[in-house]
Specification:
The protein is mostly helical. Helix content is 90%, strand content 0%.
C-alpha cells in the first residue's frame, strides 16, 4: 500500500518535472510564485495572506499542469489540425489565464497597500 503511494508520488513528480522542462509558461508561473513569496516575506504578510497567496499560486500551477496534460492528450488523439482540438487546447489555456489574472488581482489587493506604504517609508514621503 505504501509502496504504491510512493510510486504515485514519483509519477506525479515526474509530471511536474516534465512541465518545468518543456513548458515555458510553467517556468513563468514558478518565477511569479517565487517573486510573490519573496515580496510577501519582505512585507511581513500574515498567516491569512500567506494562505490565500499560496492557494492561488498552487491553483495557477496546478491548472498549468492540467493544461499541459490536455495539450498532450489532444495532440495524441488528433495529430492533425482540427477545429475541436484547437478549441479544447484554447479552453484549457484560457482556464490558466483566467486563474492567473484573478490571482494577480488578489495579490495586488493583498500586497499592494503594504508595498505602497513600505515604498513611501523608504523614500521618506
Amino acid at each position: 500500500m505504501m509502496r504504491r503511494f510512493l510510486e504515485s508520488l514519483k509519477y506525479a513528480a515526474a509530471g511536474i518535472a516534465l512541465a518545468v522542462r518543456k513548458e515555458r509558461n510553467m517556468r513563468i508561473h514558478l518565477c511569479a510564485a517565487a517573486a510573490v513569496a519573496l515580496l510577501a516575506l519582505w512585507l511581513g504578510a500574515g498567516p491569512l495572506e500567506w494562505a490565500v497567496l499560496l492557494a492561488l499560486c498552487g491553483l495557477v500551477i496546478g491548472l498549468e499542469l492540467v493544461n499541459t496534460a490536455v495539450e498532450r492528450v489532444v495532440d495524441l488523439a488528433s495529430p492533425e489540425h482540427r477545429p475541436l482540438a484547437k478549441e479544447a487546447k484554447d479552453a484549457a489555456a484560457g482556464g490558466v489565464l483566467a486563474a492567473a489574472l484573478f490571482a494577480a488581482a488578489v495579490g495586488l489587493i493583498l500586497l499592494g497597500p503594504p508595498l505602497w506604504n513600505r515604498l513611501r517609508e523608504l523614500i521618506g514621503c
